[in-house]
Amino acid sequence: MDCLQADVTRCGGITGLLTASGFAAAHQLDLSAHCAPAISAHAFCAVRCLRHLEYFHDHVRVESLVFDGTLSPAGGALRPDRERPGLGLTVNWPDAEPYRVYSDGKAM
């Protein structure tokens, strides 16, 4: 094995990602960012052993359906917007409403 793959949305969030990064670094392995580029770009800035960030059109399309502030690649790279707080995303609530699931499991 020469590269681990971590998905910030499936490995326990940013804390889990940093744990995976520490494991990879301790074993002289690269770490690949799996999907969710709007979130991953920010979180993986803290990863020294980053090999690359996967950028799939379908994930980008889904992110841009409900978030404002998603990133567009420039020159083959994603660069977080330092002027926006946190992950740089804002939920677009009216656009997210059709996907809402209620506590009883039923949508309106």
From TrEMBL:
Domain Enolase C-terminal: from-to ranges: 1-94
SUPFAM superfamilies cross-referenced by the UniProt entry: Enolase C-terminal domain-like
InterPro entries named in the record: Enolase-like_C_sf (IPR036849), Enolase_C-like (IPR029065)
Pfam families linked to this entry: MR_MLE_C (PF13378)
Domain of life per record: Bacteria
Protein name (Swiss-Prot/TrEMBL): Enolase C-terminal domain-containing protein
Organism whose genome encodes this protein: Amycolatopsis taiwanensis
